[in-house]
Amino acid sequence: MKEKIEAIRAAIGSEIGQTGSRKELFELKMRYLGKTGEISALSKGMRDLPPEERPEAGKLVGDVRKWAEELFASREEELKAKELSERVQKERIDVTMPARFSPAGAAHPVSLVRAELVDIFGGMGFDVYEGPEIERDYYNFQALNIPADHPARDMQDTFFVSGEYLLRSQTSSGQIRVMETKKPPIKVLSPGRVYRSDSDATHSPMFHQMEGLVVDKNITLCDLKGILDEFARRMFTAETKTRLRPSYFPFTEPSVEVDLSCHNCGGKGCRICKGTGWIEVLGAGMVNRRVLENCGIDPDVYTGFAFGIGLERIAMIKYGIGDIRLLFENDVRFLKQFRG
Ligand code: DAH
User: Fold this and answer.
1) Where are the domains of the chain?
2) What is the number of other CB atoms lying within 10 angstroms of the CB of residue 290?
3) pLDDT per residue as tens digits for the range 271-286
4) What SS3 class is residue 106?
5) What CATH architecture does domain 109-338 belong to?
6) Which of 79, 125, 140, 240 maximizes the CB count within 10 A of its CB?
7) Rounded to an integer, what is the distance from CA 181 to the centroid of its chain?
8) Residue 283 to residue 144: CA distance in whole angstroms
9) Mutate to test the pocket of ligand 1, among 153, 177, 213, 251 (most ligand atoms within 8 A of CB)
10) Closest residue by CA, ligand 1 atom 4
11) pTM for the complete prediction?
12) pLDDT tens digit string along 155-171?
């Protein structure tokens, strides 16, 4: 028995130093102190000893167990400290290292304007309808009271696709599509891309418009003016005023051109308003009765107004952008100015 115990002591003493992790240590511990381990086997072997030898053997076994338990516990502490310091070493962070730069995106100014318009008019009860960009001549022109060969077609230099299809030159086509399917009361916005063969510092072959349409009983030009006043105040400043000037569009009668008092100089005249105090922002008018008729709405019962806003134009005015092409070049030095 004594020799056996000495052999176990020696074995543990040499093996324990070779354990490199707490897992290995645990496995070793089980081999000696586990239920079926070698020290436990010694306790069980006591039964086979003559009774007079048992007390001494019992003490020896007890001693070796206590010794082993303490040894394992202190090795466990050692390994714990070693593993911790290895982990700290591995996960070390150099706080003086320069930060990794991750560029944040920014909404495009046209998207900002679009979102703001939807917010402003949405708050006044307008729904949003988006029509197709490849449009039929009927929706883009004919139903809007612009028959084939009408001189008003020259106002919009159109890209024709084939047959009766074209790239819509105005979001006014959305008016017809809405009125065809929905009966008054109607209060809808129709934002989207439009196309015209036109390109210079203030014109782009693709740009964005937002159409507004309201049709109900007793709608008048005053309602139009009221809604546009609210739009002007919310989009620019609380002092911004609107001014309506007579104009012509085939789909409205009367038609107006809408100016806003210059948000930059307050109307005194500056670079932005070219010294006039006013900035032209959109076209509008009372929906022509022929257009209502084309959509099966009785013009003797219902009236309506419509307006069409150019989003690039609003962005240029609002952010003081001098050339429309900046909006499409996607130069990040330009775009990042709209962050936050
Ligand atoms: N569609 C016109 C354009 O592109 C803008 C416009 C003018 C829209 C008057 C309207 C309106 O709804 O009533 O030039």
Assistant:
1) 2-90, 109-338
2) 14
3) 889 999 999 999 999 9
4) coil
5) 2-Layer Sandwich (3.30)
6) 140
7) 31
8) 14
9) 251
10) 170
11) 0.73
12) 889 999 999 999 999 99
